[in-house]
């Protein structure tokens, strides 16, 4: 018996890595969903026994109370996230062109500069006692967080908040082929039409041009002003910015293949989408539980996420939505920051909702969401069909992908939302079993996986440390310039040879022609 215990203990030891590492996690974007992703990453790595230093704009002392956690406050970044960026009226009127990847990149550089220049970060970088085994940096369309490698001289892992896209892939491999892979912000679903294919190529070429020729200017300036002096003072080498940029060991993606984007990826891209979901569903508060349990005709849960503010929603839209929901036989739970007057009997406004617990409830029939990746992942996890009303960023891509797979319907965000939503509800509700069956298939494929997302997260982070930066995973494509990958050199050779042959033929022909200008001159 004692022997058996010993063997079991031995097996346990084999499975748990038990080595504690020092990990730096950089999540500087002051947007709730990014905070959720950062917080949960920190939680899993702490639970695995590691020591974590967390750069975050969200400061909530109680939540982060853990002996092995150090917080570095970059809440000043909120200044750069002005609320016009998520103003629903400005979005509906097209005053904000979120389809412009260049705007996103410029915002990202501004955010990076604000982060690196933050007095808390400067103090941290200058502290000679800080040492790390690995850095995890959120890739938010800026390569700037790669400079932390130069200070701590350890491996870097990028974390990508969205599905695989060319901008993150080019950091570790090669851009994704635009003929079947949409820019995250355009959100086309392959196979593309001719026009879509040409547009995707144009957007990616423009993006690559900016990445290579326009962005490095301001980025290198920030590096040389805010980081290089620290390196020099510490007697550390000052690597080229270019070298740092392309030196990441791995990309962890908040994605899963079942989200409708099965593209070939290099070995150092790993999907961990869903790690933010609690394995143990928290019980619903008593009032919500009663509401859900008693909803004989099912519940529709409506939430536009954390960025769109209710105060920006025009009065006519609120009234239109209430009227529409009032006509339904289902119970409607609407997450809205403030209470509304004259709500119909079946409509319940909640300021805050435990979304995962609601989606887990058997009476939850349909989810109406903005199509943010966290919400979509939760819908897949719990197998609930949804109507997506994309607002910005990758939400269009998520909506289009799941609509194409038959598990969701997309509705455009306009002043006519209540009318368009009515059309969508009339389409989905009569066929709800079909949509539910489809999302349950996707859900089954999601859960049928060798490793849970949080275990994959811990494994790959530890793997990078254990293998000193995982050089064996790096794609050789990084060493092959784009023109060689596209065989542009071969094209040039073929063109040159063709021109030479044509010239020679012309020359030979001219020798045989008495009318030849050369002969005439002679
Ligand atoms: C904190 O880290 C140390 C090792 O660095 C470990 O022994 C200890 O168990 C950790 N504490 C907690 C609460 O995880
Ligand atoms: C938001 O937009 C309005 C109207 O375009 C402008 O007047 C205001 O200054 C903007 N606010 C910020 C913080 O940029
Ligand atoms: C490049 O990555 C390796 C392995 O991850 C790391 O040890 C090294 O410090 C990095 N190089 C620079 C210049 O940061």
TrEMBL record:
SUPFAM superfamilies: UDP-Glycosyltransferase/glycogen phosphorylase (SSF53756)
InterPro entries membership: UDP-glycosyltransferase, UDP_glucos_trans
Keywords on record: Glycosyltransferase, Membrane, Signal, Transferase, Transmembrane, Transmembrane helix
Molecular functions per Gene Ontology: UDP-glycosyltransferase activity
Segments passing through the bilayer: 486-505
Signal peptide residues on this chain, from the entry's feature table: 1-20
Classification via CDD domains: GT1_Gtf-like
Keyword Disulfide bond: no
Keyword Signal tagged: yes
Entry superkingdom: Eukaryota
PANTHER family in alphabetical order: EG:EG0003.4 PROTEIN-RELATED
Family membership noted in the UniProt record: Belongs to the UDP-glycosyltransferase family.
This protein's name: UDP-glucuronosyltransferase
Originating species: Spodoptera littoralis (Egyptian cotton leafworm)
């Amino acid at each position: 018996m004692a022997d058996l215990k010993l063997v079991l203990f031995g097996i346990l030891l084999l499975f748990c890595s038990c080595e504690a590492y020092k990990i730096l996690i950089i999540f500087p974007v002051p947007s709730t969903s990014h905070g959720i992703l950062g917080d949960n990453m920190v939680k899993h790595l702490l639970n695995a026994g590691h020591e974590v230093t967390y750069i975050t704009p969200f400061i909530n002392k109680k939540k982060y109370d853990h002996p092995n956690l150090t917080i570095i406050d970059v809440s000043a970044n909120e200044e750069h996230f002005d609320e016009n960026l998520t103003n629903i009226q400005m979005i509906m009127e097209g005053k904000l062109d979120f389809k412009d990847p260049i705007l996103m990149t410029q915002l990202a550089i501004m955010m990076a500069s604000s982060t690196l220049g933050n007095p808390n970060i400067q103090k941290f970088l200058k502290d000679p006692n800080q040492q790390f085994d690995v850095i995890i940096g959120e890739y938010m369309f800026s390569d700037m967080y790669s400079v932390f490698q130069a200070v701590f001289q350890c491996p870097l892992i990028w974390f990508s908040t969205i599905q695989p896209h060319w901008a993150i892939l080019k950091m570790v491999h090669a851009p994704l082929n635009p003929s079947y892979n949409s820019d995250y912000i355009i959100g086309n679903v392959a196979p593309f039409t001719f026009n879509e294919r040409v547009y995707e190529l144009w957007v990616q070429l423009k993006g690559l041009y900016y990445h290579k020729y326009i962005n490095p200017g301001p980025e290198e300036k920030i590096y040389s002003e805010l980081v290089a002096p620290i390196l020099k003072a510490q007697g550390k080498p000052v690597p080229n910015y270019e070298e740092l940029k392309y030196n990441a060991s791995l990309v962890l993606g908040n994605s899963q293949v079942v989200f409708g984007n099965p593209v070939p990826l290099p070995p150092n891209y790993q999907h961990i989408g869903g790690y933010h979901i609690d394995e143990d569903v928290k019980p619903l508060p008593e009032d919500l539980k009663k509401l859900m349990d008693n909803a004989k005709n099912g519940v529709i849960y409506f939430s536009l996420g954390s960025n769109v503010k209710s105060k920006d929603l025009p009065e006519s839209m609120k009234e239109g939505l209430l009227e529409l929901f009032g006509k339904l036989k289902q119970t409607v739970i609407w997450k809205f920051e403030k209470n509304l007057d004259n709500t119909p009997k079946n409509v319940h406004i909640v300021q805050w909702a435990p979304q995962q617990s609601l989606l887990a409830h058997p009476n939850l029939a349909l989810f109406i969401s903005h199509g943010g990746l966290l919400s979509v992942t939760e819908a897949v996890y719990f197998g609930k069909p949804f109507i997506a009303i994309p607002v910005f960023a990758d939400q269009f891509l998520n909506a289009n992908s799941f609509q194409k797979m038959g598990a969701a319907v997309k509705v455009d965000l306009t002043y006519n939302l209540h009318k368009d939503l009515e059309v969508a509800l009339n389409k989905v509700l009569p066929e709800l079993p079909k949509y539910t069956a489809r999302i349950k298939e996707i859900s089954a494929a999601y859960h049928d996986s060798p490793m849970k997302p949080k275990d994959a997260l811990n494994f790959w982070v530890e793997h990078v440390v254990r293998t000193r930066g995982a050089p064996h995973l790096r794609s050789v494509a990084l060493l092959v310039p784009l023109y060689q990958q596209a065989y542009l050199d071969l094209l040039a050779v073929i063109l040159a040879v063709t021109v030479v042959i044509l010239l020679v033929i012309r020359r030979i022909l001219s020798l045989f022609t008495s009318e030849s200008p050369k002969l005439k001159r002679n």
